[in-house]
Amino acid sequence: MSIVAEQRELRDDALNGLQLSTRLENLWRTPSGFFGALASVDHKVVGRRYIVTAFVFLLLGGVLAVLMRVQLAGPEKTFLSADKYDQIFTMHGSTMMFLFAVPVMEAFAVYLVPLMVGTRNIAFPRLNAFSYWMFLFGGCFLWISFMLNVGPDVGWFAYVPLSSLQYTPTKRPDVWAQMITFTEVAALAVSVEIVVTVFKLRAPGMTLDRIPLFVWAMLVTSFLVMFAMPSIMVASTSLILDRLVNTRFYDSSSGGHPLLWQHLFWFFGHPEVYIIFIPGTGMVSMILATFARRPVIGYPVVILSLIATGFLSFGLWVHHMFVTGLPQLGAGLFTASSMLIAVPSGLQIFCWLATLWDGRPVYRTPLLFVLGFIVIFVIGGLSGVMVASVPIDTQVHDTYFVVAHFHYVLIGGAVFPLIGAVYYWFPKIAGRMLSERLGRWHFWLAFVGFNVAFFPMHILGLIGMPRRVYTYTADMDWAHLNLLSSAGAAIFAISFALLLVNAIHSLRSGALAGDNPWDASTLEWATTSPPPPQNFDRIPIVKHRDPLWFDNESLPVVAGLSVERREVLMTSLAEAEPQVREASPEPSIWPLLTAIATTVFFIGSIFTPWAVLWGTPPMAVTLIGWFWPSGSKEDEE
Amino acid sequence: MRQTIVRNVAELPTYGYGPRSGPWWGAMGFMALEGMGFAIAIGAYLYLYAVNPNWPIGAAPPDLWPGTAETIIYLLSIIPNEMINRVAHRQDLARVRIGLIVMSLIGIALLVLRGFEFAHLNTRWDNSAYGSIVWLILGLHTTHLATDVGDTVVLAVLMFTRHAKPRRFSDVTDNVFYWNFVVLAWLPLYVLLDWVPRL
Ligand code: HEM
Ligand SMILES: [Cu+2]
């Protein structure tokens, strides 16, 4: 008893160097063994899993994309049936949007934000673990259903009445609707964690105008998630209730309304695009500053643009419904605001170009992907301004023009920055460099392949090819461009294989990265690569926006945290003044058990409403196990 | 990289109340997104109200007494709730225990009343879109009520064990805070469910 009390007095200022590192590592590490791994609450472990899982879903979604392009490569092909094609484009869209694009951005944030703000773990690490399990189970649920031939087939937007029981009496839309709930629970949890991490766990001195731009981007994104995703959860829950217990939300014969679905869906669906795009811009800002070798010009402008984009994105959902017959004035208003949103994005692009112009750019792979992003995104933005106008949208709605547009925006706006980010942060996460030569090959193949695949779709759309058709006849004259597009898709797909090869090769025998291989300026580079379980032996103090460029002699740090209990330093909201040494949770298996109980509940309720009754007690039990404070060091004396 | 210690934080407390504690901010975050969920559900209600010539559809408005009784209890519950807040800040374990038991009982009473409220909606979820949205909204709020009651009961039990450590009082104040949200969220819903159909 007295020994414990004595040890509890032990603080990190009593130790130094190796002693301190070893002690903290033992304190913060993930327990060994299989069960230890399942109990991990380390944001880096969870983040890495999250990233890898999201990329597996990218691969799966990509395979489906290639299957579609094979089918469409020539007229009247019978590679896929109409029925299979429906499932495949639905699975492609749903996988890409719900299981890849949003999760991968959150995954990067889970890994990077705590390091970038200089803390030891994310806020609510157990919730974080839970979020990952929910994402994993939801994704597996969708894909296993697809393999068992009960996967959804009504589009990634599942419009009613097509998705209503009357038109689709199978379980397919139920699978879709429930998958939404899984992934949204995961996304919402991460957003709350990110917001609280950024608000309260920043290193002392990291005032609001010293926060790295990627962290700002994730903060704005998290707010978008928090305000957009409840809408789709209400929508999909109502859908599943209509299908399972005969509610009438979307049933026009009983006072329901199909357009209610579209409003709820797009109130989420439009911000969704920015939920994917804004983190991409955050990555771009980080990469650009490092390789242009100077801070991003117009830091406050970039932040204001992010915030403005966030706000505007909510005002725009109606532009997805121009052809549903809206009042004239409303349509005009939404056209105007849809075009307005190009302004903040344009401002950011000017800031980036100015930074490049004024810097001494080093053209390494991450920067190449950023340049590719700028080109592709500008084209996507232009076609976006076009479809924001009602007369044009009326023409090209539901044609391949739209498919071209949104792939330019999604792939240009998110996937290119993301791949740049992979090349940029891989050394930090894995401790080893990726091959630059393979990286350049990857970039050029991706850039060319992408444009060859998607540019022709603009033309196909203008000459009348509708989207979501599984084939077309030879007399339409669409064959050549489709063949070209499919060839481009193949090149694009192959380019990603290079990334896989590169990653595997590098993990085995890549050059060691060292702490800061790119000579970057933000805090994640102030620790070793890969970072130790405690992230930092001592919490840094931030005095500049680019701490490692200004404090390059010696990093100012804080002492006085416990080395007996996991502690994080909480700071004040605006000034980041230290306030509290708060306990950070120990590893626990309960988040996994809770996720399993929740999964049983969600899947069970597709088959019987009674699952709501027998499914609740296990959830309650696991939640109590989660929150019950046994095992917390403070409670053990 | 070399490091220079320029500050010592050993004297800082190991827990804080309100905005100085992490869980408080977590609760804020969840209240924001749950509040958004309520707002969306209200929006859906008003949308259906606007597109339908008759409202409520094929039913009488809900009977007033259960919702009104609940509203009164909710408002009165703020008094013991705020008292818990005060004694928790003073770390007065005996009174916190009493307060948590009182709040648990109030919560259970409200859950029972909620059962009556469902029975007196005068419509079923599958009667019409009106029935559906009314049940959805009431269900949504009941979920919040039930989780908060569960939370309060568990916390009450916790405070009778050896885990009743000083920083648990901070958890108690967060629970107080969340209850206020449940109450606050109910007020517009009461107007919407019980009075709008009478317009
Ligand atoms: C290898 C790269 C990709 C190729 C070749 C590709 C190709 C396609 C094709 C052929 C369609 C179907 C169009 C139709 O029949 O209407 C489609 C739809 C779609 N794609 Fe992709 N895509 C790729 C990557 C992505 C990515 C990275 C995302 C998102 C981040 C994405 C999101 C979507 C969405 C949301 C749809 C709409 C699905 C629907 O209509 O239900 N795609 N894509
Ligand atoms: Cu949009």
Report on the architecture of this protein.
Chain A is mainly α and 637 residues long. Chain A folds into 2 domains: 44-584, Cytochrome C Oxidase, Chain A; 585-637, no CATH class. Chain A is 65% helix and 3% strand. Chain A is built from 21 helices and 3 strands. In chain A, strands 2-3 form a two-stranded antiparallel ribbon. In chain A, a hairpin with a 6-residue loop joins strand 2 (567-571) and strand 3. Chain A is globular and about 80 Å long. Chain B has 199 residues and is mainly alpha-helical. Chain B has a single domain (22-198), classed as Four Helix Bundle (Hemerythrin (Met), subunit A), CATH 1.20.120.80. Chain B contains 5 helices and 1 strand. In chain B, helix 1 runs antiparallel to helix 4 (129-159), helix 2 (64-89) runs antiparallel to helix 5 and helix 3 (93-119) runs antiparallel to helix 4. Chain B starts with a strand and ends with a helix. The model of chain B has no long low-confidence stretch (mean pLDDT 95). Classes of the chains: A mainly alpha (637), B mainly alpha (199). The interface between A and B is large, with 71 and 56 residues. Strand 1 of chain A pairs parallel with strand 1 (2-8) of chain B. The complex binds protoporphyrin IX containing FE and copper (II) ion. Chain B: Belongs to the cytochrome c oxidase subunit 3 family.
Features of the shown structure:
heterodimer; A: 637 residues; mainly alpha; Cytochrome C Oxidase, Chain A; 2 domains; two-stranded antiparallel sheet; 3 strands; 65% helix; globular; disordered N terminus; B: 199 residues; Four Helix Bundle (Hemerythrin (Met), subunit A); 71% helix; elongated; binds protoporphyrin IX containing FE; binds copper (II) ion; respiratory chain (chain A); heme (chain A); translocase (chain A); electron transport (chain A)
